[in-house]
Amino acid sequence: MGSLKPVGPESNEQQGSGFFATRADFLINWSRKNSLWPMPLGLSCCGIELMGLLGPKFDLARFGAEAARFTPRQCDLLIVAGTLTWKMAQAARTIYDQMPDPKWVVAMGVCSSSGGMYDSYSVVQGIDSIMPVDVYVPGCPPRPDAVIDAVLKLQKKIEREDPLGRLIGPATAPRPEEGTGKLVFQPNQGLPKGAWDKHAHDPKSRLAIGDPLPRKTEVKP
Amino acid sequence: MTLTKQVFEYVPAPPAGDDPLHGELLTLNMGPQHPATHGVLRLVVTLDGERIVECDPVVGYLHRGKEKSAESLGWHKFFPHTDRLDYVQPLMNNIGYALALEKLAGIEAPPRAQVIRVLLMELSRIMGHLIYLGTQSIDLGAVTIFFYAFKEREKLYEIVDAYTGHRMNNTYVRIGGVYADVDERVERLVEEFLVEFEKGLGDMDALLTRNRIWNDRNRGIGVISRADALAMSLTGPVLRGSGVEWDLRRTQPYCGYESYDFDVPTGATGDCYDRYLVRMEEMRQSCRIVRQALDRLKTVKGDVLVEDRRFVLPPKDLVHKSMEELIFQFKVVTDLRLQKGQSYRGIESSKGELGFFVASDGTSKPLRCHIRAPGLMNIQALPMLAKGRLFSDMVSLIGSMDFVMGEVDR
Amino acid sequence: MSDANATASAPRFVAALGSLPHCVSQSPDGPVVEVELAQLKDVLRALRDRAGFEMCSFVTCIDHYPSEPRFALHHQLLSFEHNDRVRVRCVLPGENAPTCTDLWPGANYMERECFDMFGVRFEGHPDLRRLLMPDGYDHYPLRKEFPHHGIEPDKLYREWDRARREQWTEGAQ
């Protein structure tokens, strides 16, 4: 397996990788990945499949992610299921902001991934234009199996995070975009645990790319 | 047939004067992300204590511009968009659109296709009503019913999956018929489903119909009189719950519904409980129709698509072999032309009268494709029903009006 | 079939219309009454009161741009007693039309939708606001000159987002 590695000396892969930190990271990641609490933002058709996913046949509880809560303040996994319109975007962004850190986002279905078949005047062309996304699930709507696969992939992604580094390390930018020439291919290497592989929703990381998110939640006067 | 009322006496809510919070107005925002609004509906509710003074539904959070899409895509390419209207019953919407276009084109589906359409429509109706049952009951605290309903829905998805190859949003209906024939495996699955579903429906019936909580939270709430129902353009189970025996399958039949034997249930008072009874009975009647359709499938043989190359896609295996058919395929998809004029066709979907009003100016793009969504009318009636009720009744009301936002917002 | 019913009962509502000027034609789904804007309200009222059309199935508009006058209003009515439908078509000289919410309260949302999508102003409507698009939206999407991709679709969201961020930075300082 190969991986993409950022060019230049600023990649601080070794940082925070002492024995204690590694074991603590492992423990934290293990507990996080097996107890995801999804926030089902069922917007349209995919919402019905999401209900089926939580239902008896597909049973997301087998992967530790069945505790769906309808308030964002209790959840750490936002599943955006369906077409997001610009009218709804404010509500969706508010929900995303209200979720406590750490949080992850799954874009379920082509509509939330890219706008899908709705190339029209009212539809957001992919929710990544208003919030960072961890896993995209194709399909219109995706079968529940595909969403389970996405949750498993997200669990793998959580395994690679370094929560302690995020807590005490310096603010660094998240991974550069592919295709910008800032990444080189490294054959026969696993995905390294480095600064760029940090959590996309990390306020510190986002500060480094000039898109800060507030730590405190919005309080209305 | 009128459904008989039974069991408990309805105890009315206490008078407004007993409410300690009486006199203090509070504006509450419910939605657009709320588990009880079934999608992205937003309700701005003004409360006086526990009582609703005013309720203003705000819709449009799922407005995807379908009617505009129809104008820029063309007749044939709009089919996949109709699936996503009322996404709990995609095949029903397909058929509604196909019927409207067939009327304008002046063609009619072959007999076997009509039987298949009836079969699909009735299975879709059960799908739609099961969503009503599951969501209404989970909102009122009966979580078991949600799982029961979704267990049955999964079996329906298996049938649809076996027939079309996808669980939802299966664009399988064409102008002049359906894409492919039903095979024996699907027929067997449907037969098995009918046997299991009757037992499952009986279980849900036993858990709900005489349930004290269910009765208390549904009876006497959201009463719609006959005159109100007509004035507010309500259709479907909501209208029938108010005692109007009006079912488009019976009164303005399509797809040969006049030759099927079924009853049209009506309620007596028009409250949430009556609408529940009507929907339960409709599911049983749908099973009856599905049985008859299955019997007919054994005798009615023949094509499932009209052989009319002006409007109908050629079979896929021929497209790969023959130049002529490839050209026809290209012409139908990109440049399907219908006669100049307007046509409206309403069908009885599980929510009410789902109508497609199509206007053609003779070119390959529709001049206008208006979708008459029953759900929008049901939402429109919410302020009228909620006024003066307790806030907790709002949940019963939203559930019993049974709308799907994909269709409401289009 | 419904078509046969509708054709047979066409004279029924013609008698109800009396001396009101109109023109009845046939479409694939039944009779269409064409009226002038001045007579629209009277014709609708006559159809409701004297011909028994108890329900307004839908109200919608068709944009005939670039030909002028561009908007045509369509009211589809349904009679339960006689089991037939009729469509009333009215070409609008401008952008104004009389409301029919006093005849059928159910037409409220449909007229709001017409206003939202085409900018047709219904005089006498109790609550003429946008229905589907957000309140501050500047355009009428179903007009023919409006592009399918939209004009600045994210404008309102971006404004909201900017105001929100400014509020946060003020709070942080």
Description:
The complex is a heterotrimer of chains A (221), B (410) and C (173). Chain A is α/β, with parallel strands linked by helices. In chain A, 33% of the residues lie in helices and 12% in strands. By secondary structure, chain B is mainly alpha-helical. A three-stranded antiparallel beta sheet of chain B has the order 1-2-3. In chain B, helix 3 packs antiparallel against helix 4 and helix 6 packs antiparallel against helix 11. The model of chain B has no long low-confidence stretch (mean pLDDT 86). Chain C is an alpha/beta fold and 173 residues long. Chain C has one domain (2-172): 2-Layer Sandwich (Beta Polymerase, domain 2). Chain C has helices at residues 2-8, 10-17, 37-49, 107-118, 155-172, and strands at 23-27, 30-35, 55-63, 71-79, 84-92, 96-98, 121-123. Chains in contact: A-B, A-C, B-C.
Describe, in short, the structure shown.
Chain A is an alpha/beta fold. Helix content of chain A is 33%, strand content 12%. In chain C, a hairpin with a 2-residue loop joins β1 and β2.
Main sheet properties of chain C: 5 strands, mixed
The main sheet of chain C orders its strands as: 1-2-5-4-3
Q: What is the name of the CATH topology of chain C? A: Beta Polymerase, domain 2
CATH fold label of chain B: Cytochrome-c3 Hydrogenase, chain B
Cα-to-Cα separation, first versus last residue of chain C: 73 Å
N-to-C SSE string of chain C, H for helix and E for strand? HHEEHEEEEHEH
* Beta content of chain C: 25-35%
Structural class of chain B: mainly alpha
| CATH C-level label of chain B | Mainly Alpha
Low-confidence stretches of chain C: 1-9
Give the tally of structural domains of chain B: 1
Question: What's the gyration radius of chain B in Å?
Answer: 22 Å
Instruction: State the distance separating the first and last CA atoms of chain B.
Output: 34 Å
Order of helices and strands of chain B: EEEHHHHHEEHHHHHHHHEEEHHHH
Estimate the helix proportion of chain C, in percent. Answer: 25-40%
Helix content range of chain B: 40-55%
CATH superfamily of chain C: NADH:ubiquinone oxidoreductase Nqo5 subunit
Under CATH at level 1, the class of chain C stands as Alpha Beta
Oligomeric state of shown chains: heterotrimer
- Looking at CATH, the homologous superfamily of chain B is Cytochrome-c3 Hydrogenase, chain B
